[in-house]
Amino acid sequence: MRKRNRDTIVIAVPKGRVLEQLSARLEQAGIPTEALTAKSRKLVREDKQSGLSYLLLKPDDVPTYVEYGAADLGIVGRDVLMERDYDVLAPVDLDIGKCRMMVCGLPKESLTGKRERPLRVATKFPHITERHFRAKGTPVELIFCQGSVELAPLTGLADVIVDLVETGETLKSNGLVTLDKIADISSVVIANRAGLKLRRAAIEPILDALRK
Ligand code: PRP
């Protein structure tokens, strides 16, 4: 791994819809975000004055960078941590990026009726889905989709989906309804175990500011 400047704190942040809320939350905590919000295709954004460096990543990759120590801290949705095990600490819940992991389907769909075959479930979250239905004792056939998963019940690809619901607009626009809740989701700060020990003096004040 490339040698890191010991004084720089590297924060892995997710590109996408949570970034705006995150910048506001960082600003509130007195953490400069100019480098983060600047219009640019740069994936590393350094704020020389504060010694912070932001990495702009796909949300699913944030814990990987933190686990391997390429970043000291990361911001990620709990859904990502529920879907796969990572050896990271999650010291602060930011109370942003709030949504729900739900089982959804057509209004006529029932999760309780008797079936001749396993329930067919399309999702980007196979492990969460498998765990949920195993706990319920419902046999399922999982169909992995990368996105636009709402299409699956509409086209007959699957009976139901497991997906994130934030405003409910996507479900409504596609004639789907929620059938069961799996979990409440929000964004959390994650930390590299060794990094937190080695750079505690620089990292703790950031965590404290974000806890407030
Ligand atoms: C997410 C999620 C839903 C939608 C829910 O998809 O998978 O499709 O947002 O948001 P809403 O309740 O506010 O409508 P995203 O926009 O990330 O795109 P994707 O379908 O490609 O995953």
Q: Give helix and strand order, one letter per element, not per position.
A: EHHEEHEHEEEHEHEHEEHH
Can you name the CATH architecture of the largest domain? 3-Layer(aba) Sandwich
CATH class of the largest domain equals Alpha Beta
Gross morphology: elongated
Average pLDDT rating: 95
Walk me through the topology.
Blueprint: E1 9-14, H1 19-28, H2 34-37, E2 44-47, E3 52-57, H3 62-67, E4 73-77, H4 78-83, E5 89-93, E6 99-105, E7 119-123, H5 126-136, E8 140-144, H6 151-155, E9 160-165, H7 169-173, E10 177-185, E11 187-191, H8 193-198, H9 200-211
Parallel strand pairs: 1-3, 1-4, 7-8, 7-9
Antiparallel strand pairs: 2-3, 4-11, 5-11, 6-9, 6-10
Bound molecules: 1-O-pyrophosphono-5-O-phosphono-alpha-D-ribofuranose.
Characterise the protein shown here.
The protein has helices at residues 19-28, 34-37, 62-67, 78-83, 126-136, 151-155, 169-173, 193-198, 200-211, and strands spanning 9-14, 44-47, 52-57, 73-77, 89-93, 99-105, 119-123, 140-144, 160-165, 177-185, 187-191. The protein has 212 residues and is an alpha/beta fold. The relative contact order is 0.20. The protein is elongated and about 60 Å long. A six-stranded mixed β-sheet has the order 2-3-1-4-11-5. Strands 8-7-9-6-10 form a five-stranded mixed β-sheet. The chain folds into two domains: 9-97 and 186-211, Periplasmic binding protein-like II (D-Maltodextrin-Binding Protein, domain 2), CATH 3.40.190.10; 99-185, D-Maltodextrin-Binding Protein, domain 2 (3-Layer(aba) Sandwich), CATH 3.40.190. The two termini are 34 Å apart. Helices cover 31% and strands 30% of the residues. β2 and β3 form a beta hairpin. Bound molecules: 1-O-pyrophosphono-5-O-phosphono-alpha-D-ribofuranose. 1-O-pyrophosphono-5-O-phosphono-alpha-D-ribofuranose binds next to β9 and α7.
